[in-house]
Specification:
The protein starts with a helix and ends in a 9-residue tail after the last strand. The longest helix has 24 residues. Helix 5 runs parallel beside helix 6. It has about 475 residues and is an alpha/beta fold. A ten-stranded mixed β-sheet has the order 10-9-8-7-11-1-12-13-2-14. The chain is built from eleven helices and 20 strands. About 25% of the residues lie in helices and about 20% in strands. The protein has two domains: about 325 residues, Alkaline Phosphatase, subunit A, CATH 3.40.720; about 100 residues, Arylsulfatase, C-terminal domain.
Amino acid sequence: MKIHQALYALLACLPALPVLHAAEQPNVIVILADDMGYADLTCFGAVDMDTPNLDRMAEQGMRLTNFHTAAPTCTASRAAFMTGCYPVRVGMGDVIAPRADGTVSPSRVLWPNSPFGISADEVLIPEVLKKVGYTTGLVGKWHLGDPPAFSPVKHGFDEFFGVYFSNDMKPYRYYRNDDLLEEPIERDLQTKRYTTEAVDFIKRHKDGPFFLYLAHAMPHIPLAASPEFRGKSKRGLYGDAVSEVDWSVGQVFETLKELGIDDNTLVIFSSDNGGWLMRGEEGGLNTPLRGGKGGTYEGGLNVPTIAWFPGKVPAGSECKKLASQMDLLPTFAALAGGETPQDRIIDGHDITPLLYGEKDAKSPWEAYFYYFGNELHGVRSGKWKFRAKNVLKNENIYYGLWRDTEMGDSPMPPALYDLSRDIAETKSVLDNHPNIAKRMRGYMDQARNDLGDSLTDVKPTNVREIGRQEVKRDFPK
């Protein structure tokens, strides 16, 4: 008896091991809008939108007002979110798009019938979480490659319902896991269909832990909304589509509450890139940020983001520190008791201290790089942002986005912006801060040596290969 007491006393003195049991592992839901602008939510300054559910999410959680994607287009930004790495790191900066005539063209996004996609060697969020007992599901848009090699169920997802590409690409089909389910798609009912599937996933896996990635098609063009939402907003069909996405968010929260699992669920809402300005009334607003989708001004990558986790994320709070979608993989791994891959470079960081509102929490990014495809456009460090020369011209050529009456299509000189005073990037202070500019150029040199830069023809030293497969051409008439 005395031996047992002594042994118990000895064990009681040992430090507890950081092992999470299933009951302690939070469910994780990421809801991703497509092409939603920074100023498209009331809680982010919209005056002509009605987004009550997302506003309530912000009231009960945290607005991340300096939260960036890793690219201003969908394929690259989604690759970064899933892997925790810059797109160029995983070979997903520039890709090749096939044409119906058998030729190919450079592209910043994957198109149907492309032989490329996310490599099987990459470790994605669902794979990290599955290792520690999570059930994983994707509902909605994938955009990381064609089946069969690049099917989500071959990259860590237990369940998949949705589409492989953007809703302006053909063929546009619903898949369930590896099986073609439905063609053509009723676009007007797409948001509702995704919501039904997401709610069903949550109900079936309520005992958790689960990871759900709900990737909406809206408000990417061609815009659509179900009859209940059409014509109800102040922003035309774009506003209708956003309102229905907001409704969808509300349905997710209602389900969590009904099942009694809301207190143990982390929900992140974000967008894959900024609003598409060239679409006019069919695109989003990024006010007060400059630029939008397809460009590396803040409007292309700083996206409306909200975090919600009762009792953990402070209600009604705001995080102004620089963070990124690349940070989500390390953060989810830490919260789930998992591990970030140790055999490769992962660019993202665990931002749990930021999400939990810890007093001394700081941005983990000493330098944050702005890539467009394989081109290095700029770098951010603290309040400073440096842009390389001639960037605007290249963006104009590719996307036709920048109808800047002052600049036109003219080549641009290097620029340095103090974002704490000039978030709209209107006035370069390069000449006033030569030492800051020198430091920022040094950061860019480091990035070029690491990740490469096609603008200056510097080859990378630490990047991995894109995935490849043989594909059967299937171009619709």
